[in-house]
Amino acid sequence: MNKPTQLECFELFEEFADEAAHALDVEASLDALLGHDVEVMRERRRSPRHPFQTTQMYAEYDGENMPPTSRFRLATFHDISSTGIAFVLPIKPTHARFILAIGTVPFRFFEAELVHVREMVANGQVSYQLGCRLVRRILPH
Prior knowledge:
This is PilZ domain-containing protein. With 141 residues, the protein is mainly beta.
C-alpha cells in the first residue's frame, strides 16, 4: 500500500461528507472513557484506511465552542480514511468529541467523534489509540 501524499489525505477528508454515515456505538465509547472494559469492536469502516503517520494537533471539544489555540495539543496520528481517523494520546481522553487541526497554517479543521479507545503498552509506557468518526469540516468564518 502506497502512502498517500498530504494533498491526497486532505482530499480523503473532504470526501467523507459525501459518504453515508455509519453506525456509532456511543455507549461503548462512554464506557471506555469512564474506565469500563473496552471491548473489541467489529470493523465499521466503509472506506479503506491509509497510513497517516504524522504529528498533528487536536483539542477536546464541548460540541459548541471552538477551543482556543491554547487548548490544542500534539498527537501522533496513525491512519485515515474518508470517514475516520486514528491517533494516539499519552493520556486517556476525557471527552468524546475533538477538533482536529490538520496540515500546516492555515490549518484545515475537522470535528471528530470518538468511536473506540484501545489501551496500548510499549516499553512500560501506557498510551491510548483513539478511533474517531469524522463528523464535519469546520470552515473559517
